[in-house]
Design brief:
A hairpin with a 3-residue loop joins strand 2 and strand 3. This protein has a 4-stranded mixed sheet with strand order 1-6-5-4, with no helix packed on it. Strands 2-3-8-7 form a 4-stranded antiparallel sheet, with no helix packed on it. The chain folds into 2 domains: about 30 residues, no CATH class; about 90 residues, Sandwich (Immunoglobulin-like), CATH 2.60.40.790. The protein is about 15% helix and about 40% strand. The termini are far apart. About 15% of the residues have low confidence. The chain has about 140 residues and is mainly beta. It has 2 helices and 8 strands. It is elongated, with a radius of gyration of 25 Å.
């Protein structure tokens, strides 16, 4: 509320877009913390006989700002990413955190591979080869 009162009582600045644009822009800046979170619903999971494939759109994320880890205790793969967004009002850093299950009984987690190219993170985990099931002869007594 104080932002609204300050906005309405301060003198207008030259080159202002519009009162509503300035109001929402200033409110957005005051509500946003120093580190925002970015979320992206463009996640694609694909499971085949060969393995599991995940693609996540992470535009603007550089390789050095990306970390993919696997925790064997809870069978979770974790993705942590950061990116810096620069606009007319300055720059801000955003973070992205996501996790998903990778069952070590079904997948070979030692061969988990991750690569980022053109803003798309691709994670591939090959499936473990399953032993052939043993057929048991049933005798009639």
């Amino acid at each position: 509320m104080t932002d609204l009162i300050n906005y309405l009582t301060k003198p207008r600045v030259a080159r202002s877009y519009s009162p509503m644009f300035d109001l929402f822009n200033s409110l957005e800046q005051s509500l946003a913390g120093p580190c925002e979170s970015f979320s992206n619903d463009n996640i694609r999971f694909n499971e085949t006989k060969e393995g599991s494939h995940v693609e996540i759109d992470l535009p603007g994320v550089k390789k050095e700002d990306l970390k993919v880890t696997y925790n064997e205790e809870n069978c979770q793969a974790y993705i942590e990413a950061k990116r810096t967004i620069t606009s007319k009002t300055g720059s801000k850093q955003e973070t992205y955190n996501r996790s998903f299950n990778v069952n070590k009984n079904d997948f070979n987690v030692e061969q988990l591979k991750a690569e980022i190219m053109d803003g798309v993170l691709r994670i591939n985990v090959p499936r473990k080869e399953r032993a052939e099931q043993k057929v048991i002869n049933v005798e009639v007594a």
